[in-house]
Amino acid sequence: MLSLTPDAIRLVEFYEDGDDVGHFTFEPVDATKGFPDVCNPEKVEPGQFFMLSIPGKGEAAFTYTHTPDENGRFVALIRNIGCLTRQLFKTEVGSILGGRGPMGKGWPDFKGQNVLVVAGGLGLAPVAAEIYSLIEKESAPTVYFAARNESMLVLRNERDDWMDKCDLYQAVDDLDSLTGKSTVKTNGGQFMHGRKLADNLAQILEEKGPFDHVITCGPEGMMEAVCKIMMGLGQSADSLWLSLERRMHCGVGLCGHCYVAEDLVCVDGPTYRWDQLGELVVKEKAIKPPAETVDMTTHTRRTRQSA
Amino acid sequence: MYVYELERLEHLRNWLTLKNEVLRPIADESGNGHWGVVKHGDVVPFDMDLRPDMSPKGLFFAERETVMKFDGTLFRETLPEQKPQVLFGLKACDLTAIAYQDNHFKDDPYYQARRKNTLLIGIDCQEACENGFCASVDAGPHVDTDIADLVVTPMPHMADDEHGWWVICASPEGQAAIAGLGLAPADPGWENWRDMARRHAEATFPKDTHIINGIQRINGRAVPDEAWERFAHQCISCSGCSMMCPTCSCYATRDVPEAEGVIARERIWDSCLMVGFQKEASGANPAAEAGKRVYRYWYHKFSDDVAARAGRYMCVGCGRCEATCPGMIGVHSIMEKIANA
Amino acid sequence: MGSGAMTNSIVDISKADVIVIFGCDPTESHSIIGSEIMKAKEKGALLLVVDPRRTRLAKMADVHLQLRVGTNIALLNGLVNTIFENGWENKKFLEERCEHADRVRKHVKDYPLDKVADITGVPMDQLKQFARIYSKARAAFLAYGMGVTQFVSGTNNVLALSNLVLSCGHVGRPGTGMNPLRGQNNVQGACDMGCLPGDLPGYQSPNDPNVRAKFERAWGTPVADQPGITSMNMNELALEGKFNALMIFGEDPVVTDPDQNRVARALRSMDCLVVVEMVMTETAKLADVILPAASFAEKGGTFTNCERRVQRVNQAVNPPGECMGEWQMLQALAKRFGTPGFDWETHEDVFNEITEVTPNYSQMSYQRLDEANGLQWPCTSHHPDGNSVLHKRSFPLGKARLMPVHYLPPEENPDDDYPFYLTTIRLHFHYGCGSMTRKSPILERESPEGLLFMNPRDGANQGLFNFAPVGVRSRRGYLETRVQFTDQVPPGLVSLPYHFSDTPSNQLTNDAQDPTTGMPELKACAVRVEPLARDMRPRPIQILRNENYEPAVEEAGADYVRI
Ligand SMILES: Cc1cc2nc3c(=O)[nH]c(=O)nc-3n(C[C@H](O)[C@H](O)[C@H](O)COP(=O)(O)OP(=O)(O)OC[C@H]3O[C@@H](n4cnc5c(N)ncnc54)[C@H](O)[C@@H]3O)c2cc1C
Ligand code: SF4
Ligand code: FES
User: pTM of the entire structure?
Assistant: First the structure.
């Protein structure tokens, strides 16, 4: 049986990490009988998410930015955007909240592969855990992170940490917003121009490529652009991975809110391979596209993800 | 499979009331059918043509229910308690829908708590009902014995004569429920008779070309976006179709404060035809256009892709949405439009 | 034509071959009627829509006259002129049943098509097409709504409309009529019962000594011989210190009346304000005493709908706590005041008293209402089973009078400083001031914020993006909200729903009133739209006003007063 009842978790740490963005750490309230699944290091994979309950306000999905450590502590990077998150930002450290998870499919295992991670804004949250995990597996990825302006350069401590463990390229759309406050060095020492996505990716490919896989996460428009650009640069569609966001109420495939064509993002996603997602997106459009753009017969649906 | 002969349905119904709460279709003053409790000794004749306006899905997947409570430190699951109950006189369409939902909610503790204590008694329809097209989507008019515990089917009869019934024990639970009633075993010819009755019933259905054609065109994605947008002008997002539909299963959640700081989380039926269904907190909405929502509703009901996951088309051909839609885009109307789009 | 109700019934929609929807959107505000219209259209009726906005029905319509806001009269006069010029009028009807047709015929000569096209922005051939279809119809059903009445020239708008209807004779037969769509379920009932400043129950005039004598006999007390005052007048007098106490039943004027700041000031200045409510509205917050009201499901009585049908409301559950029906409250008050004559035992007694003093209701009783599923007034000894079509043979005044009316531009027009027209609209997920519907989480999700609707083209010109935070300023007030692009409104027009207490549209609107009815000009005023910083959150009015801030509905899923 599935459970729609959260386990009690405690908010143990909070600091601001960008404009209207908070860095939240949680731990199990009662680990005497073992960890509840939501904080169980054995069960959570990078790329998966959990449902956070703020009693009185409801429940919403957030990805693990750090998967649970040996004490069951985990981190989420959360934007203050709606009624529930507004309440979360007012919640005092030490309060009891609810957690349910882990949910969805995580990223495939990219151990030993040359991986490029492309993240935009808060899209760094769902890939952060994967970056850590790849570093641990001695397959440190190349990371490209772009934000609107300096104040949206989130996960500052994490990036600080990655700086000398992997190749980190950074970009902002608004170069004028840079005050030099950001201590995190970017590869080559300079911020790239965020709006020149295609040029930046081409440069990175030249310097660090070719890549076996590309993971991207950010606004949907950006992910689409990344995939198209990378395909233009010769990356195959089945080596591009992304993480999708949909409104969610249950996280376990019951409530129906998160659907894309016949898929439920909460169980079939949120991580998708570009070609497979493309198949779904095409179905969402009522009229059939010309045969040469998508040949429906050549893709067989995957049952399990594998790299 | 054991099959018995039964003189009057009311006998079986009364027998079942001894140990269970029995619900059967009943008409209210305005003539609308709903599921009502029948007491032991009740002699009201069973009306086999009455089909409740609301599907029985609400008896398992409640329109509004509390899923858990938080008392300040602990979250507690609040499972419903269900006494043994019998749904007496389910038509094939509704039974097919229950089978569909059994699968969708197979791991849902609230649904299953109610469902596992319920005995389903199906009844074979003898003719097409208004708006019904179950025969076109493999959901009737006769009950599939895999999806009920007992099935009752009328014996052949002359004109207006009272006829008897065959009772088919379709599951061990069904078999157990009639143990002790002392029914006589049926003649071996029952199966042929039932088959013939089915063919007679199937012949009463009006033409369904628009349904078949519509299904083809939805799956061939042969209906242009503009056409969906046009149909959607007539969708006022009242969500009536989703509420009436026996297979629609979407819900929303909300937290309700109770006395002494306790918070209850409820779930309530929702509908994908509402503009806010997929709207995210940022204002982004993957289904902002009404045409897209209407398309998705029907794509979900009739798409082969969804059918591949769920085992069948979601639509069971009950026709309730046609009866309820104020905008004339219920199943028959929309399929006509699609077929001509 | 003489009476403020639908001349025909909802079933007449299905009997019409032409349906005209004038300045309203029944699919949003009267969904059942909207549904009937869609059904009729599916069955082949022609649908004509007159509305500045591209409403849902406008998108489905055969002809949509998308006129400039506030140019109704010019349009109608132009149509009537076209009809007369082409000889498409119903001569027999005009001769036998109307008077002053010639005056109007002469008067509308001032409205040739080219001039009308200029004023209204509607192309000439569309106007002509409309005139032709309407006048040649076998039976044309015309419905109009708040878009017509809530203008300075509201009364004149209705007169101009009736000129059109009468000149084509589309009244008094099945499938025709001139049919106002009322804002709320029981507005008709309230009007019927004399909740108008100049009427006693049943539209009987207090100026008539016979009427007064009848009521004095029935009630055993003298009755007023002068009309009362309108709600706008009350505000005025209150501010002058001449009006001191008010009891409000289930209204939220602070949110729904125009020029809210003034209303709030007026209410504050009274010595005693009693509000009878189910939920904590903005108005209730100003009250000295709040009395808890029973909801529709918790009391018995009757409602009268827009087709004049009096229907029984059956109590389904007991009211919680000390809540009670309004009649019980009035009765209790009367007792304390020592006033006799309020000793009904049940709500049926109240209804029986109504039937005694209201000729239109005289043949009704609870039993008859139950049997007939409601009866349509007039239900008199001549028509004991009620009336679905009014004016079959004659009008209340004998012959119907056509009235020449002039087009006057709206009181306030857009200019360089305030370049947009603002109209207020209703969303079907919310009702009135939202005090009830905004408590429901799914409805709240459906339209969570008081959005400003704007044409995408205007949006681009203003450098806005969808859901951008904006400030909206008129000469009277200022509020902040988010902008949503929609092709429903034409360029130059913006619209704001009037349900939300955080973004009360009436903060901005004009309180110029119609001289006859006192109906405020809610529908049009000039505003300017000011972009706010892109990540700024629009501030609710309570913060902008910066006084006793207390959000009415905090946030979705936040507070449930009662459900
Ligand atoms: C798989 C996944 C991972 C996510 N990870 C993160 C993350 O790491 N950091 C982060 O800041 N945000 C993340 N989000 C988005 C986050 O869930 C929403 O921003 C948040 O739910 C909206 O804020 P709210 O609940 O305060 O809004 P409200 O307006 O209060 O929303 C009401 C309800 O709507 C639902 N809802 C609204 N928007 C969304 C949405 N975009 N996605 C899912 N449900 C929604 C929720 O169930 C919520 O309870 C993620 C979303 C998904 C689907
Ligand atoms: S879609 Fe309509 S006809 Fe099909 S099962 Fe649902 S309500 Fe019945
Ligand atoms: S979130 Fe409920 S089905 Fe995916």
Answer: 0.83
